[in-house]
Amino acid sequence: PRTEEKMTENGVSSRAKVLTIDTMNPTVKKVEYAVRGPIVQRAVELERELSQGVKKPFAEVIKANIGDAHAMGQQPITFFRQVLALCSYPELLNDSTFPEDAKSRARRILQSCGGNSLGSYSASQGIESVRQDVARYIERRDGGVPCAPDNIYLTTGASDGIVTMLKLLVCGEGATRTGVMISIPQYPLYSAALAELGAVQVNYYLNEEKCWSLDISELQRSVDEARTHCNPRALCIINPGNPTGQVQSRQCIEDVIRFAAKERLFLMADEVYQDNVYADGCQFHSFKKVLFEMGPEYSSTVELASFHSTSKCYMGECGFRGGYMEIINMDNEVKAQLTKLVSVRLCPPVPGQALMDLVVNPPQPGEPSYDNFIKERTATLSVLAEKAKLTEQVLNTVEGIRCNPVQGAMYSFPRISIPEKAVKEANGQQPDMFYCMRLLEETGICLVPGSGFGQKDGTYHFRMTILPPTDKLKILLDKVKEFHHKFTQKYS
Predict the structure, then answer these.
(1) For FRET with 91, which of 54, 103, 128, 259 sits at 20 to 30 Å CA-CA?
(2) Which CATH fold would you assign to the domain 104-360?
(3) What distances in angstroms separate CA 482 from CA 436, 438, 492, one per listed residue?
(4) Domain residue ranges of the chain, discontinuous segments joined by +
(5) How are beta strands 231-238 and 6-7 bridged, if at all?
(6) d(Cα 465, Cα 377) in Å, to the nearest integer?
(7) HEC profile for 370-438?
(8) Of 367, 362, 365, 387, nearest to 377 (Cα)?
């Protein structure tokens, strides 16, 4: 209804707003994103208060809420930044302090850009030479399984590719509405995107007792139940896992592919942590490689989109928003629609595309930058492996906290016991949110409650990244240990 004009005190007419909380897009109101939710907003306020001299029981806020490696002190890879500097300011190509391989790489990237400038738009699907390099990288990674550059779409981080694919998949009304199967616990991008698109979120639970493994009988239960109220069409897998840090076995991936084939589901493989594998006996297997090793019965029929990013692994270059997706067995008419959809956004950030090119085509043996690149890459990954082990070991010494091995990625998702008295005092707030908020106010440690990722009823968790520098991580873990003990005593 149109709202009449009203007169304000100073005689100026005021109209009700066109856009109000009641008239805005209702799906947006359903979107939640715990990783940057109320806990983080409060952490920012606390930082501001500390900087203004307000006395707190801690000297600094330690954020372990988000997988932002550089914000936590991880150092950039020198070669990547050298080439990006050269691309951004080509005058530096005359500077003798830059190694020759960095210069030749920068020249190659600039020659692929309109007007030889990083500031020009690229093709919507991404710079062709970068897509060719991505295709070669995938072939090497997967032991020679062919990869066509035309099936590669460069994206604004992996998130952009995931949301784009979900847009293509969602259709129908009521009981025919598209259902998308996501793991619980899950990365909140998935639940947020499904809420925004008005799709049906179909939960399947990872098995915490078996190190967050994936059980086919649970997938079957989930899809059968979902078919009573929606049309499940896609299955999303995060491997290595976020927030749970598990690495799926090859056998598990085969089982998932068979299941997707049998149930006619489109597979989405989020593989952004593919270099982050730490535990002995664990290995990253790409869905594409396993799919093709299973033979034409599967490799020529199962539809798959897989995603990678510059934001994780040893790179940690989140701010450049670089990523790619590869599509397999997509219907040609749908592929034309996908190309149309990405063209609406013109193109992914060109500096992010340049960085993606360096990730898939790093310095080679014999090149001037090779030794230093390998040294930095190895050091970053081995420190992460140490921190993964440290986190698991320390948390498991705390009575009332149980932490699975952090096999990969950069997070632990320990289960915490919360006394009944504290559950009551939470007063409608999720008990693990109450726990994490108390932890923040008393210690300055910023973690995300498990309820923001989904968890089995009656269980409580928090997610923490293993990214803070080792000395800070030790302080963080000691503070969590001390807090949990006090919290349990207070509410017992």
Answers:
(1) 128
(2) Aspartate Aminotransferase; domain 2 (3.40.640)
(3) 14, 13, 16
(4) 31-60+374-491, 104-360
(5) unpaired
(6) 19
(7) HHHHHHHHHHHHHHHHHHHHHHHHHHCCCCCEECCCCCECCEECCEECCCHHHHHHCCCCCHHHHHHHH
(8) 362
31-60+374-491 is classed CATH 3.90.1150.10: yes
Q: Which residue has the tokens 């919507």?
A: 124
- The tens-digit pLDDT sequence of the chain (492 residues) is 454 556 666 666 667 888 777 877 777 777 766 556 788 889 999 999 999 999 998 988 888 888 888 888 889 999 999 999 999 999 988 989 999 999 999 999 999 988 888 888 877 788 899 999 999 999 999 999 999 999 999 998 888 999 899 989 988 888 899 999 999 998 888 888 898 888 999 999 999 888 888 999 999 999 999 999 999 999 999 999 888 888 999 999 999 999 999 999 999 999 999 988 888 888 999 999 999 999 999 999 999 999 999 988 888 888 889 999 999 999 998 898 889 888 888 888 889 999 999 999 999 999 999 999 999 999 999 999 999 999 999 999 999 999 999 998 889 999 999 888 888 888 888 899 999 999 999 999 999 899 888 888 889 999 999 998 899 899 999 999 999 999 998 888
Do 170 and 189 contact (CB within 8 A), yes or no?
Answer: no
